[in-house]
Amino acid sequence: MTDRYDELNQLGQMKGLPKSPEEAVLERVKNPCSEPYMIRLVAPEFTSICPVTGQPDFAHLVVDYCPDKWIVESKAFKLYLGSFRNHGDFHEACTTGIGQRLVKELSPKWLRIGGYWYPRGGIPIDVFYQFGEAPKGLWIPEQGVPPYRGRG
User: pTM for the complete prediction?
Assistant: First the structure.
């Protein structure tokens, strides 16, 4: 993790996708606001690989967090998520792992992630992870992703 803007190594640079989520570097910048507020990161076309069949899995991810001292740099976050394209893991491990990695790197006051996965074997799987308690008075909108209905 970086501590200053001049130490950002991915923003403004031509960077390929990391080979794995473990190799991905999540850069951070100082939080510009001292009062509690919420940041939402949305990845409506997240992909990973089924660890059993090798087939692609697709999800709509919504990450909400109340930063403390750090915010994630958005290009680094995009590259991190892209590193899952060739990563084999179950929906639960991908979703909770992303949340846990953000908590480890950013130490937010509060974080939640919703992984809204498209059906595998006819069953949609939604996975949710939360860290900490939301600060009192923090406005937290609904994630806005409706339950999967197929063509119904």
Answer: 0.90
The span from the CA of 145 to the CA of 40, in Å, is 13
The CATH code belonging to domain 5-131 is 3.30.1130.10
Q: Is 33 a catalytic residue?
A: no
Q: Which residues are annotated as a binding site?
A: 72-74, 91-92
Average of pLDDT values for 27-52?
Answer: 96
Average model confidence (pLDDT) for the chain?
A: 91
* Alpha-carbon torsion (72, 108, 3, 81), positive or negative: negative
Distance CA 37, CA 50 (A): 35
57 assigned to active site: yes
DSSP state letters, 31-43: -S-SS---EEEEE
Strand, coil or helix: 94: helix
Annotated catalytic residue within 6, 50, 68, 94: 50
Q: Which of 105, 132, 133 is nearest to 25 (CA)?
A: 105
Tokens linked to 43: 């990845």
Residues annotated in the binding site for substrate, as ranges?
72-74, 91-92
Instruction: Choose, from 3, 6, 33, 57, the residue flagged as catalytic.
Output: 57
